[in-house]
Design a protein that fits this description.
5-stranded mixed sheet, 23% strand, 208 residues, Aminopeptidase, binds coenzyme A, two-stranded antiparallel sheet, alpha+beta, elongated
């Protein structure tokens, strides 16, 4: 099964015997084309997955406010649902991953597939790697009874929005995250009290 690309970019070909895909660069001087394997994540992949995520989700560019990328996140996702953790590997290097879980709600017969983290190394983006990780993860979830998929991303994450849009995701719902810092609020109250006291003092002098 080979997908051709009229723009001459990378194309994919499924190897039916090994269930792996090969990533084909456009034919260039007869050079060997890189092979990318989409496979189950193993315990030994945890450090590489963590480091790739760390590269993509820098501290000032956290994908969501309520989830942060750290080693505990990878370990807990892996422990909770190993079946829904996949990696993309090229010549022994992890270049992408997809981590998800299944959400079941009380009083609902439906199972929801939540795609929590989907990441491709910047050097390998726009080559169909995320699409292949996505297909692997969603195929497994459908096999396990999922009928609806959920994703969330920041409103200004255009690549992710375009990506999920291209897969048929829609019905976008806006959600607002707010933060609350008790120390700042207390400071503001103090300021207000101070300026009110000053004002009252002045008024008192004026009245007297
Ligand atoms: C979103 C992300 C996973 C996409 O990975 P990818 O491997 O580049 O995606 P694919 O090559 O499979 O793209 C499939 C389609 O998605 C759309 N798409 C993906 N990236 C896009 C971009 N930057 N701009 C516009 N469309 C884009 C296109 O329609 C693309 O098809 P095309 O290349 O034939 O036009 C990648 O950009 C990424 O890792 N981003 C940082 C992490 C992140 O924000 N993840 C999502 C939230 S967890």
């Amino acid at each position: 099964m080979r997908a051709s690309d009229s723009a001459g970019r990378y194309t994919t070909e499924k190897n039916m015997q090994t269930d792996s895909y090969e990533l084909h660069a456009p034919e260039e001087n007869g050079r060997r084309k890189p092979d990318i394997d989409i496979r189950d994540m193993g315990v030994d992949d945890i450090p590489a997955v963590f480091h790739l995520g760390e590269k993509v989700f820098t501290a000032d560019k956290t994908p969501t406010l309520y989830r942060t990328w750290d080693e505990f996140e990878v370990v807990s996702m892996f422990n909770a649902d190993t079946d829904y953790c996949f990696v993309a590997e090229l010549e022994g290097q992890i270049i992408g991953f997809a981590l998800g879980n299944i959400v079941e709600k009380k009083r609902s017969a439906w199972k929801y597939g939540y795609i929590v983290w989907l990441v491709v190394s910047p050097a390998f983006q726009r080559m169909g790697v995320a699409s292949r990780l996505f297909n692997k993860l969603t195929d497994k979830m459908v096999e396990d009874g999922v009928r609806l998929f959920l994703v969330d991303t920041e409103a200004d994450n255009h690549p992710a929005i375009e990506f999920f849009g291209s897969k048929g995701f829609g019905n976008t719902q806006q959600h607002m995250y707010m933060t609350y810092n008790p120390a700042n609020v207390e400071q503001q109250k103090e300021k207000k009290r101070g300026s009110r006291g000053k004002k009252n003092g002045n008024d008192h002098r004026r009245n007297g």
